[in-house]
User: Fold this.
Amino acid sequence: MGPVSMVKDEAWDQLLAGVTKPARYTDAEWNSIYRPDKRPALRFALAYPDVYEVGMSHLGLRILYHVLNDHPDYVAERVFLPWLDLEQALRARAQPLRSLESGTPLAEFDVVGINLPYELTYSNVLNLLDLGGIPLRAADRGEQMPVVLAGGTGAANPEPLAPFVDAFFVGEAEEGITEVAAALAASRGAPRAERLAGLAQVAGVYVPALYREVPCEGLVCAAPRNGAPAQVHRRLVDLETAPYPICPVVPYIETVHDRVTLEVMRGCTRGCRFCQAGMTSRPVRERSVATAARLSRQAIDCTGYDEVSLLGYNSADYSHLAELIDALQAQHAGEMVGISLPSLRVDTFTAALAERLQAVRKPGLTFAPEAGTQRLREVINKNVTEQDLFTAAGAAFAAGWFHLKLYFMIGLPTETEEDVLGIVDLVRRLEAAGRQQLGKERRGRLRLAVSVNPFVPKAHTPFQWEGQLPVPELERRVGLLRRGLASKQISLSTNHTQASLLEAVLARGDRSLAPVLEAAWRLGCRFDAWGEQFRPERWQQAFAQQGMDPQQLACRALRVEQALPWDHICLGVSKEYLVRELAAAREGRSTPDCRFEECALCGACPEAGGAG
Amino acid sequence: MPQVICRLAKGQPVKYISHLDWMRTIERALRRARLPVAYSAGYSPHPRLAYTPPLSVGNTSEAELVAVELASPLDPDTVKERLAAALPPGIGVLAAWPAPRLGGKVTFGDFDTAEYRVQVRGPVDPEALSRRLVELMQADHVTYRREREGRVKEFDARPLLVQAELTEQAPGEAALRLKLRLGVPGTLRPEEVLDLLGLGGPEFHSHIHRLALYADQPAQGRASGRQLSRLLPRRR
Assistant:
């Protein structure tokens, strides 16, 4: 049971009565863990730099919450960023940001672990620290201040946030988090610098203070000081035996992913050349059908959800998908539990799968062709064909689906106007085919939701050396799509191009961006990923204050020979492999998936002699 | 198929969840309780449940009813026990009883009146409050301006105000008992009565609790008040 003391506190209650969605802040949800009787060796705040309903959808946060709370020595509580109205109220009353479970101020925890889901949350990370009463810069934190840990996707290139974070955890943290906790519990009372140096001995931990800034070819790289590892290697876990939260907190308010998220596989070797997740989570690991079915049974019983989503980068790549769906449907028969799959590759969606999926209720279907022409799909190594798309869509329409979601990217390396118009052509022909197949009676119900995102070059991908297209050109290409796809049956959604520019700058950024981040936050930048809250002019001002040009940073191509700011972080794949893949892209050559064809020697498999 | 009616309490810890959140929460609890709930047919099957009219966000209640249609018969005490064990802190099952056969499904749409207990703290002037209350009850028309999502609607609140009495008062505090219409005749919210009494400003802190629902004015074609009263548990 949650912080009833806080609810009973009249001042707090009155504060909540005046804000939007007060149930974001009240906790007391089913399965939330609050044990005031526990005397832990270490208290963790697990913080997410966005509002409750976004953070509560994050599987990683849920996993760590249970790993730590299940351990006899540790306690973990959740902290989410308040929305602007509550932030204002807290600041006006000089009240700190507190945890949900016990209402403890953030600065009173031993460790504050912050998840970094993507670059556009970085202003929120600073806001979270400041609202929690924690000095922004690691160097300014006193002995009594919590150790600020950060991990997740953002740790792939930690440099823009390096001065604000005491230690990053690189890779999958299920096992490493308790090693970090043990090291910090053991060093309690020792000087802060000593504790952090000790922490750097834990595999997967990067302590930025132990690396000095080295300018190289206009970039700032990081070089280890005495005793620090030259490269920090990411951690990986065995998914079959990895802890899984069978009793996750069940939110009252609707969250982004409000269902049982059953992770059936981790990693992807399809090798899309823009995809950071695919490049950095290798090799592919799967849960067995028996384990997945057992976890699903336990999670449904413990939560009361009516939907299980089979999570994986492409869950249709799961080796035993048909068998698993059959097993789940058999064991949840009569309970009205639906099964859904997130975004699917079109070459893996079949009529048989469509038939299986709709047994209880029809989940949404999302396909990601990513590019409009075969040439460009070869360049990015998205090895699907137009025929695959039409076959998959045909199977969906035949099985009774009317709505499809389609993901594309624009501004991909080598993209021409022909490729952009190729998206229009492809979607239009799919619309025509759908209408024809559905027939006079049902064709009016056809809806294609097309989502288009600008290409963002990400660290540790073959396209990390490529520049982004300038914003005006991205806008022009979006305009081509908007005109070409104007139809009652097609909806087009696109990301803010200026936000994509910022994402590109931060994704390949170095430590020189830290003052920009701080300046932008001081200018009031918050919730940059929330379209209507994004303030490009404030960011422009922050860059200008530091004498930097974001357009130049985002659009510049890097040389494959030069040192990169994230070279000291190793996420499995070797730089040689990334260089080979970039060359293959430029020649329009695809590289097959090593699960089905020969090994591409990416370096991610420890058993194949890779760095691991 | 048989229906069981449960009377639920919505307490302090969950008072900020919306009606939609409330419905989701009850559905999930029924599932955790492994009760044999009947489902609708079709593309998107949903449990056959009926709820009483929405409670305002921020209010607590001891009169939230849910009619649960069961796929196989189960005695109400078992439903009560199993559901109670599966509900989060702050939601309680006060009673459960078999739904009467009214020649159709129970939907609760015929409830037209709710009773509330209101406690207010703040700069309450007892004399002025008593005077305003008398004025309000004696008036023929009371115009209320309701602002919702940027739209303003003016309406006569008086016919929707059935009863308002001051049950306790002391400097800085007051307790009221309100009986207000809701649903078909129109809805007057207890917060709006506080506005009319000059107790709605940010300097006041109020706690509103729904005590009961009634069907006072059954319209033609709807179930009669006598029939509806059988939806409520017998007073003990």
Summary: The radius of gyration of chain B is 19 Å. DSSP finds five helices and ten strands in chain B. Chain B touches chain A through 31 residues (CB under 8 Å).
